[in-house]
Write a structure and sequence with these properties.
The chain is an alpha/beta fold and 358 residues long. It is 32% helix and 15% strand.
Length: 358
């Protein structure tokens, strides 16, 4: 319910600070819904001018995934290419050379050309399924042990990503190991835990180094909330094997990750173990980003949608900054040092002076 003041021929809505669907009720008239958009600059819009809202129902169990699929649809290119492959194979069999009677000229065979085309189409179909088109894929590294302290955090983070940016994402995360063939189709890779993972083999170290030097990005998240944890010791030892000539070093306040989307003046997460992020640079960009403050813990919720953990010592304002930091890390993995370009500096400085961007 909202209080409406009529001035002249225009209605001024009062308590509509929160975006959402409101209902305008009048005596003897049917309630009319109207929407307040997330972007306040666009004003208000009526979602149901005919009185029947064109809403789509989604399952309560997987509401987030249902919303994304209703909005963007399903990835169908892989299935379409697979169907085309079946037709091509059928054409290959039908075009096989037949045995001609003696004295007649044989038709030129088409089998080799058709088989080659079928092979290329099969590779394209596999690539389309692995790449998921142009959508961002949240990829997490699995290892023996407690590799997944927050199984639903990615769902909340991807919903936030879809809400505040125009980045398209796949609702289901991809879970892989370092020897998985899909490793090099996932430029973004998350490694998190509370205890030390098993030591990497020489082959796994080489694959991880090849992944990072070929354009990949690794986000390491210490979920222990401790200043000195077995996970932290494992990370530092392992990174020295991956990059023998480079150590994890603090990222300064001027690093691009602090302004890829939101402008962040401090590093905030569920805890306040470290005052800065750490990273390893390769080829002018940060390829390994290490956060010891348990950012993903700020996203974890129970079955009723309540946050599982408090953010200490800053409370809910700290949780909000943790959400922003998560989004900035994802955007840095997608855009790299794009915001380092000097063309953005006047705009960012103006935003900081006006106070419109936190």
């Amino acid at each position: 319910r909202a209080v409406v003041r009529v001035v002249g021929r225009a209605a001024s809505y009062g308590d509509t600070r929160q975006p959402g669907v409101y209902f305008l009720e009048a005596d003897g008239a049917e309630a009319e819904p109207y929407a307040v958009n997330l972007d306040r600059s666009t004003g208000e819009s009526d979602p149901a001018p005919a009185g029947s809202p064109p809403w789509r129902q989604v399952s309560v169990v997987d509401a987030g995934e249902g919303f994304i699929r209703s909005l963007y649809g399903r990835e169908a290119r892989g299935w379409a290419l697979a169907l085309a492959l079946l037709f091509l194979l059928a054409e290959t069999l039908l075009s096989a050379p037949k045995r001609e009677p003696e004295g007649t000229s044989a038709r030129p065979p088409k089998v080799k050309a058709a088989a080659a085309a079928a092979l290329l189409l099969a590779l394209a179909a596999v690539s389309a399924r692995a790449q998921e088109g142009d959508k961002f894929v949240w990829t997490q590294l699995k290892y023996e042990g407690s590799w997944d302290p927050y199984p639903t955090a990615h769902v909340e983070a991807l919903q936030y990503l879809a809400t505040v940016t125009s980045v398209l994402s796949v609702p289901d995360r991809r879970i892989i190991s370092l020897d998985d063939e899909k490793l090099f189709t996932s430029p973004f890779l998350l490694l998190t835990g509370r205890q030390a993972p098993p030591n990497l083999t020489d082959q796994e170290i080489r694959r991880l180094r090849d992944f990072l030097t070929a354009g990949g990005f690794l986000w390491i998240e210490d979920a222990s909330g401790q200043r000195s944890s077995p996970f932290d010791a494992w990370v530092r030892k392992t990174m020295r094997h991956v990059f023998p000539d480079d150590d994890l070093a603090p990222l300064g306040a001027d690093h691009v990750v602090h302004k890829t989307f939101f402008i962040l003046r401090t590093v905030a997460a569920r805890t306040a173990v470290a005052s800065s992020l750490e990273g390893i640079a390769w080829g002018g960009r940060t390829v390994v980003l290490y956060d010891r403050n348990d950012s993903l813990g700020a996203w974890a919720k129970d079955a009723l949608g309540n946050f599982l953990y408090e953010c200490v010592p800053g409370g809910e304002s700290q949780r909000l900054n943790a959400r922003k930091l998560t989004l900035n890390i994802v955007m840095y993995a997608l855009t790299g040092n794009y915001k380092q370009d000097a063309v953005h500096q006047p705009y960012l400085l103006q935003k900081m002076r006006s106070g419109t961007v936190p």
